[in-house]
Design a protein that fits this description.
Layout: H1 2-6, H2 9-54, H3 62-110, E1 125-132, E2 141-146, H4 161-168, E3 176-181, E4 184-185, E5 196-199, H5 210-215, H6 223-232, H7 259-272, E6 277-280, H8 289-295
Parallel strand pairs: 5-6
Antiparallel strand pairs: 1-2, 1-3, 3-4
Helix pairs in contact: 2-3, 6-7
Amino acid sequence: RIFKLYNPKNRFVSLYSDIFKRHAKMSSTQITLEQSTRYYLDTIFFSSFLVLLLFIDLNSSQFYSSALVFLYAGYRVLPISNRIIISLQSINYTSAIVDILTSSLKNRINDESHQNNIEIDEVNNIELVNIKHKNIKISNISLKLYSGKKYLIKGESGIGKSTLVDIMAGLLKPEFGFVKYNDQDIDGIKNVRDKISYCDQSSTLFNLSVYDNITIGNKDRNSNTIGKIVSSLSIDKVHINQENILEYEIKESGKNLSGGQKQRISIARTLHRMSDILIFDEPTSALDKTNEKKVI
């Protein structure tokens, strides 16, 4: 959801492309170093026997013994040649994986599968018409939502609330029915995802600073706005061994933060984008009562 909506393509395509290329280069170097010495010595051994054969009279009694030596050398070289070919194939295969993954990542982030050509300035209304999906227990959902209002989707666990929201945000295609923004079909709108901020249940964070996690995918990095949001969510009061919370480096998946801390940073990212549509999927599940009241 974060990749699709916030579209941080430049940062992550560059980051992972470099990682894949470095990994491929290291793998190639490792394979070469492991095998080259062995192949080099075996080649010298085989070449030495060939040179010796040139100086032996074929009619002499030494011919048969020399031929046996030659055959033995060939027996040794053939497996080596086979391993060389296998190693080269492995290198080429690794390079192909890098190209495929990089291309796939670019295509997924850019998400250019739609032929959208309409841009909207602001979202005035969202309409769902006869929506049906296998993960939604209720069929033929139709409703219209208007800007400036708050809506609550309530239901039992597993009924399909998150799926319905994903369809509403254009992240998932309904099996039947369609979604409209400002009375226009969502598939024809080019910039619909620029109008949406999404705070999901998992509080997705990246191996970046708190500042970069909050501002990711946002071209307007207003420091005053960030400061106000950080203060209102008490993120600046998080107990860490660093003076400036915004410079604190988050480990992979936020392993060095508590559930509540991760959730507050995720909420801050959603608010900082200042989109027309704010979607919160159980945003306070990991917060205590005091911080939950602040968010609400």
